[in-house]
Inverse folding.
């Protein structure tokens, strides 16, 4: 009897979660799809976004994401390697770094926005630009990326490290050829989470990359990201709802496409390294 | 004790046997009983807590030396101090002296990579890398300077034949090593150690994670290494030690830390143990 109740309860919870997800996606598709067309993706917005498309916004979004990832991935991976492989001798240092990261991960994104505005835009003189927006996002995504990469590296069995050491293989060779490939699935999961967080970000970008909706000419131009565009259309532009819905559908599709491509690329890379059957 | 040496090792080195087994760096046969490793007053402590102390004995060249004794008396710690793998463990301090072919390895500023190339190690759980079968062997070779691809391929075939895996895997060298059975994985690990032509092999309970059939195959393989390599094997299996060891060191917990209570030729330790603890342990009364 108790088993039965538990089963019903768990099915209920699972269904509830799926239902919420289906509702959101269904609402988006229902309201957004009719406005979606090739023209919407390939033209610039007019009339404050009520008409026209989102081409410059799509380009700005991708540029911001690229700046963010180009900075965050090497830094994140480097720190994760330091924490998981080299901080064993100095546990206090490791604990300090981890604690700082956990605090950073919990800082509201608007605070990152203010920091980015003060440091990148004003102090370093980058102004409202895709560069300062991407760098601010990198700061925001880094804690997430580092902690997930560290967890992935730690999950690699110590057997490999001992086997490699017993064969007289240098630490960096082991890392590059054995540990990182073995950790790849976890690393990719963290990366995808980071990309999702970066794409979804609005508050941190308001003060850093700005909301100019023209096509950016360089990384030092201001550029409006998709999430800011949605925010603007939904909040500030009367009559912009339909295009806001369409943009939201594009954002979700973009996220799905980037995730799929990332997993594919990782699979390829693993295949090359581990040459499966 | 000349029957302790395999016929191949006892036979004179002919051009023929060399070409069949080129990976072997010929060493004196076990019969001569000369020390390869000299352990003097070795002590190991973890974070200040003594795990092993007063360990003094010789390990003869070309012989199989079994380290026996109950759990927790420092056998594995002892083994990992012989290739300085103990360096990987935080708070592990090794003192005393271990000489391998006369060269001191404890505490001294030595080239760890060169040491570990000379002293191979096999672990309890088979741990091939998550690479293909071939790469498990070529990867260490490449990093120890064998840049000629053909030479590497030849070495792979030789060493796989040596461990009896060649016929089983020759058609799927590029398949993942983790797809092999446990016994095959352990033999691959042995091959991976042998491919670097070490002088000494450390085996940490190499059969205990295997089923009886695979265990027997690996055990025969280890026995066949006699004469070609100096083998040190930790085992809980007294019957196994009896079958393959030339030389035995009995570890026991004394005053909270492990030490060697008796060591010597296998025949004398098993047939006429001088120490009452050893006698009782071998008789199965304790441990």
């Amino acid at each position: 009897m108790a088993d039965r109740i538990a089963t019903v309860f768990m099915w209920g919870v699972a269904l509830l979660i799926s239902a919420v997800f289906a509702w959101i996606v269904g609402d988006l598709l229902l309201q957004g799809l009719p406005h979606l067309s090739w023209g919407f993706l390939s033209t610039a917005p007019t009339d404050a976004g009520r008409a026209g498309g989102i081409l410059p916004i799509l380009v700005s979004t991708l540029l911001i994401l690229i700046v963010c990832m180009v900075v965050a991935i090497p830094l994140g991976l480097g720190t994760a390697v330091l924490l998981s492989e080299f901080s064993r001798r100095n546990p206090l240092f490791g604990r300090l770094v981890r604690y700082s990261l956990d605090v950073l991960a919990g800082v509201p994104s608007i605070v990152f926005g203010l920091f980015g505005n003060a440091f990148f835009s004003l102090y370093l003189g980058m102004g409202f630009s895709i560069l300062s927006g991407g760098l601010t996002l990198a700061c925001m995504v880094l804690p997430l990326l580092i902690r997930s990469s560290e967890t992935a590296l730690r999950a690699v069995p110590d057997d490999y490290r001992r086997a490699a050491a017993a064969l007289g293989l240098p630490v960096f060779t082991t890392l590059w050829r054995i540990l990182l490939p073995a950790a790849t699935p976890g690393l990719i999961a963290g990366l995808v989470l980071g990309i999702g967080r970066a794409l979804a970000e609005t508050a941190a970008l308001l003060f850093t990359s700005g909301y100019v909706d023209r096509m950016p000419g360089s990384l030092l131009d201001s550029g409006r990201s998709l999430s800011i565009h949605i925010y603007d259309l939904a909040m500030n532009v009367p009559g912009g709802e339909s295009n806001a819905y369409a943009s939201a559908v594009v954002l979700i599709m973009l996220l799905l496409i980037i995730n799929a491509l990332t997993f594919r690329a990782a699979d390829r890379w693993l295949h090359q390294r581990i040459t499966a059957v | 004790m000349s029957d302790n040496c395999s016929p191949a090792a006892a036979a004179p080195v002919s051009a023929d046997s060399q070409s069949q087994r080129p990976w072997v760096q010929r060493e004196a046969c076990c019969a001569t009983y000369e020390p390869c490793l000299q352990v003097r007053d070795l002590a190991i402590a973890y974070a200040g807590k003594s795990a092993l102390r007063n360990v003094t004995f010789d390990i003869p060249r070309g012989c199989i030396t079994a380290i026996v004794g109950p759990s927790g008396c420092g056998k594995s710690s002892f083994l990992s101090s012989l290739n300085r793998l103990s360096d990987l463990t935080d708070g592990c301090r090794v003192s005393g002296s271990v000489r391998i072919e006369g060269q001191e390895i404890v505490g001294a500023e030595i080239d760890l990579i060169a040491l570990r190339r000379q002293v191979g190690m096999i672990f309890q759980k088979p741990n091939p890398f998550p690479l293909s079968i071939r790469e498990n062997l070529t990867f260490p070779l490449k990093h120890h300077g064998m840049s000629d691809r053909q030479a590497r391929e030849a070495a792979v075939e030789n060493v796989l034949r040596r461990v009896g895996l060649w016929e089983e895997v020759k058609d799927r060298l590029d398949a993942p090593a983790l797809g092999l059975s446990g016994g095959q994985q352990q033999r691959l690990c042995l091959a991976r150690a042998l491919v670097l032509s070490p002088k000494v092999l450390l085996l940490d309970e190499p059969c205990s994670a295997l089923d009886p059939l695979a265990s027997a195959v690996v055990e025969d393989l280890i026995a066949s290494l006699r004469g070609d390599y100096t083998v040190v094997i930790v085992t809980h299996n007294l019957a196994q030690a009896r079958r393959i060891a030339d030389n035995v060191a009995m570890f026991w917990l004394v005053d909270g830390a492990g030490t060697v209570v008796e060591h010597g030729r296998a025949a004398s330790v098993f047939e006429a143990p001088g120490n009452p603890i050893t006698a009782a342990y071998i008789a199965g009364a304790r441990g």
Remarks:
- Residues 241-274 of chain A form the longest helix (34 residues).
- The mean pLDDT of chain A is 89.
- DSSP finds eleven helices and two strands in chain A.
